[in-house]
Amino acid sequence: MSKPMSTTSLPSSRRRAKGRLSYNRFRAFLVACAVRPEARLWQVIQFALLHAVLWTFILINLKAAQDVHMDVAEAWGWGQKFLWGYGKHPPLSGWVAGLWFTAFPAADWATYALAMATVSAGMVLCWLTALRVVDARRAFLAVVMIALYPIFNFKGFKYNPDLLQLVTLPLLVLAYLNAFEKRTWQSGILLGLAGALALMTKYWVLTMIGAIGLAALIHPERLRFLSSPAPWVAIATMVAAMVPHLVWLADAHFVPLTYAGDTYSLQDKSQVHQLVAGYVLHNFALLAVPVALAALAMALVPPWVKLLLRAPLRIVTRAWARGANAGVNVSQALNVWIIQSIVAFGPPLGALVFSIYMKTDWGISLFFLVPLALVAIPTLRVQSAALFNIAAIWLVLSAATLAASPLIAAREMAANVGNTATYGARSELARKLTQEWHMRFASRWAVVAGTMESIQPMVFYSPDHPAAFLPLEPWNSGLTSLEDIKTYGFIGVFDPTDGRLPAFEKWVSEVAPNAERMVMSMRRFTNGKAGPSMNWNVYIVPPGK
User: Fold this and answer.
1) Which of 3, 79, 253, 435 lies 20 to 30 Å from 112 when distance is taken between CA atoms?
2) Rounded CA gap, 485 and 184, in Å?
3) Radius of gyration of the chain (CA)
4) Which of 161-165, 296-300, 320-324, 513-517 has the lowest mean pLDDT?
5) Beta pairing partners, 519
């Protein structure tokens, strides 16, 4: 006689069914929160906050053996004095940094938190922009695609004017779409203020402003918009809001603009072609990441397993269908397509025509509309399950990166053990120089002189936070002056391998012929691993009597 099987020897079918039910309920709840008017804004804000927290910790781990980027240290220095401009850039990035660091210390983690807070705020603005063009389902898909775009995670580690454009430019596009729809003087004021805010970030935003202007002229409904007060009020408002900065720019003899022309003009055509090709390939590769992951999320919509076995092509084709699509505002989508096309192709073509040095970082702020431009294609059908899938992909990749980040950092350091540009002990030098100054003069170290690469870390890491003086640059940041150098003294810091050393030596000999000169060598140890040793020429000049 056979013995009856224990009821605990196999999983209960009821338990399995309950598990599937709970999973389905959670998935349905997530999708419902993404589309319900009363819940969707809060869900996107929560998503952006979670993204900021996760990626702040990831960056802290990845950059543990490195000092903050010189752009970040520069922004911190700008934020110590609120001016209408800082040498080569408008003031907004300095103002934001100044406000941020009134609440947070001058520490590495706080800079990564600022960078992630910036991109996360941009994500929310991109979602609000998307709602002007597509339904809530597509808007949520677009915002998660943006979170997967490397500019909003790995590549977004350094806060600077380029990164801040990921807030001000989505706001500008949102204001334009609002003005294009409402065509009132009030919407024109908002558009003008958004334009001024963008221009106060970086002059490069003229690219986006120009694209918006061309979109307004090209769009089939242009006469309705141009005959309304919105665009003209916007122009007047933007000019009026920019007056204080324009006055500063005139007082600075327009050096920031001439600096850009002198620095980024090239004569070598082959180098121009190489740089443009690198720019295009670099940004295409970055955009391929969220696009491929979104395609994967849509392919994994059930019953994808059955389709894979019986009709694999249907996994792709089922997401496309002809016919009207109530989920897309085609008029506003046309604006997005025009703007994105212009900023995608205009800069590299302009670089080829005018022989401009094309930096890959200039693309940081120009492609945030790509996810929206893609999800706004009317023939694309977005199923609810795709929203859960792409959110799950984002969470798995972020959590896996967080877990692996210490190992990634260790391997990166081992592979670049001699890279002083990345792993040079500049923060240690800043603290050592502060001690040297205090021992000699028993006063605060007020000014550091040299190149941006050498001295911005001194500004950030020294407990005294000296102001930066750049004698070899054609522009003055306004944070200190030659009179301050004579009054408070200074420490000059220079990389002896820098080709500009003779010019700096000449300047020191002219302003402080009796400067104390020395060579200092520093090395950082991270988790018991030695970083590269780096030498600096140091010039110590006492305060004036």
Assistant:
1) 435
2) 53
3) 27
4) 320-324
5) 537
